[in-house]
Every structure is written in structure tokens, then in C-alpha cells.
Amino acid sequence: MENMLHLAPCHASVPDCFVVPPDQLPPAASAAVSLPVVDMSGSRAEVCRAILDAGREFGFFQVVNHGVPEQLLQDMEAVCDEFYYELPAAEKAHLYSEDKQKPNRLFSGTTYETGGHKYWMDCLRLAFTFPVGDSTSEWPHKPHRLREVFEKFAVLTRGVGMELLRLLCLALGLRPDYFDGDLSGGDVILSVNHYPPCPNPSVALGLPPHCDRNLITLLHTGPVHGLEVVYDGDWIKVEPVPGAFVVNFGLQLEVVTNGMLKSVEHRVMTNATLARTSRAIFIQPKEDCLVGPAEEFLSEDNPPCYRTVTFGDFRRMHSVVKLGSSSLNLTTNLKDIQKGMYQMN
Ligand code: OGA
Ligand code: NI
């Protein structure tokens, strides 16, 4: 618990375990560009076209007029700040755990395998099912509005994700409920990532380059820059749009669409002066759900590029392949992971 970054009044220098060796530091990003912004209040046909275009060109886009009330987003930001800045350490000590199997926990560093290397981020990670039922019973009770605000945010944001999946189905020629059920029915994860100011941003990363391994991710950030995305072989900075969600496709969506939609690599940079907090909702399949390319994307000319495996096996293989790779090469190619599965079987 003492090693949590946000508990230190300030950091005079970057401890060695956070320092990325210079030869492994990723290349700097070019100027900030705005990701395409999709207005969800448009007609369904317009929105479908916009997400498909943005999704195919960038793999990342932002959505506005998504129906999650502005007041709730502000409340969510306020409660997250209260959690990290005002709640005394003793009140959150019981949440701290380095056990990756625990569904609800507070930790420092990253969930990715790092070979001992650490990233400049604290994280409160909470899981729930949908419908919620009593799945949030282990969530923290403090600050006092946390439960109420987090649950509303989580449910409504998941709803936006499900609507986007339905619109994608229309755009892709899949039946509208293709992703309903087990493909999106695993535990939903709410991650509150906190990146404190870093005394030497040129040597430490907030999150290493990675692809999300779930189905689809929705991210709400404040005005502080930090997220960078690969576009056309270069890193570009994401310009935050107030009140928007940043949306990106996970590896499972790449598999289902047989590679038509790509899960794009992204990372988080640190900065010296401003703390940054982001809130992510990860929608993912059930552990025993078989995920493979949908028939609609296959033909004699388009054979399956990915194997059909359960999401649980995929995750296990994903971490094994990652463990074998260098600590900073965390975006093991999806095809390598699938090849690894082939070799394991
Ligand atoms: C993630 C992620 C980006 C951010 O949690 O997978 O990419 O800005 N987060 O926190
Ligand atoms: Ni991510």
C-alpha cells in the first residue's frame, strides 16, 4: 500500500523500477490530432457510417451526445478525485492487493505482465455483472457517494458500448443482437486509472504500448493529455473532447470481424505538472464463450485468419506469450498469440 504513487505528497525523482531503459523508450508522438468525433444523436444510418469509417481508419474514435448525463460525468470525476486525494490511506488499505485474480482491488503499476518493471499509474479496478444484482456488494463504501455514482456511470456507459456494438452490427451486416449474450456477457470492468505528475516524464510511461484484449472499451478522460494511439505507423496524441467517450476495439472484435476491424495499439505518457485520471469500461465475453471469426466475414477468398478459442483460453495464452516477450514489447501480435495457442495444443 505504501508504494501507491498517489499517497506520496510529491515525487522528487523517478525510482529506478519505473525508469524505462533509453533504448526501449518508444518514439515521441507527433502533434495532437483529434480523433473523429461521432455524434450519436444523428440518424442511425449516419452514425453507423461514421463509426465504421472511423473504426476502419483509426480503430479509435470519440462519441458525443451519447446519452450519459453531463452531471453524472462530473459527479464521477469528483468522486474519483475524492477517492484519490481526500480519502485517508487507512480507509483504502483493505482494497489494496497485488493478487491479479481479485476482481475488485486497488494497485499500483499495471495489470500487464512487466517482468518487474513498473508504470506510473495507480488503479482502482472494479468488476460487475449485468444486470448488476448484488455483483457490486464488494465495491468500496467510501467516499460516501462512490457506490451510487460508480454504479450509475458503469451501467450507463456499458449501455453506450452495447448500443455501439448494435450499430456496428448494422454497419457490418451482422444480425443486430450478434454481440448480445455470451460475447459481451462476461464481467464488466470499471478501471479508474490515476497518473500523478511525474518528476521526469521522459523516462517513465503511464501505460506501455498495448492493445485491449476485451471486446470494446469506452474511456472517459478529463482535459489533460496523455493518451497516444498508433496511426499510420506513427504515434499520435489524442486531443480530449469535453464530455466525450474515447472508444476503441479490443482484440476480440478483431477476431470476430476476421481482421476487418483492428484493435489498435495505444499507450499513456506521463507529464511533470498535471495529474490525470481516466475512467474505462471494458466489455468482454464470458470466460467459456467461444470467440472466432463470424461466418459473415468468411468465404473461399477470405479464409479465417484467427482460430476459434474460448475467451478464457485466449486470456491465458495472451499472458503466457506476453511473459515471454521483453517487458516493453507488450503488444504481442494477435497472430503470434494465436500461433502460440496452436503450438500449445
Ligand atoms: C487502459 C488504457 C488509457 C488511459 O486502461 O487499457 O488504455 O488513458 N487506458 O487511461
Ligand atoms: Ni488500453
Task: Sum this structure up briefly.
The chain has 7 helices and 15 strands. It has about 350 residues and is α+β, with helices and mostly antiparallel strands.
Quote the distance from N terminus to C terminus. Answer: 40 Å
Total DSSP helices: 7
Per CATH, what is the topology? Jelly Rolls
- The proportion of residues in beta strands is 15-25%
The description of the largest β-sheet is: 8 strands, mixed
Mean pLDDT: 89
Number of domains: 1
- The helix content, as a percent range, equals 25-40%
Family: Belongs to the iron/ascorbate-dependent oxidoreductase family.
Domain Fe2OG dioxygenase: 185-285
Protein name: Fe2OG dioxygenase domain-containing protein
Organism: Panicum hallii var. hallii
Key terms:
alpha+beta; binds N-oxalylglycine; binds nickel (II) ion; 15 strands; Jelly Rolls; 5-stranded mixed β-sheet
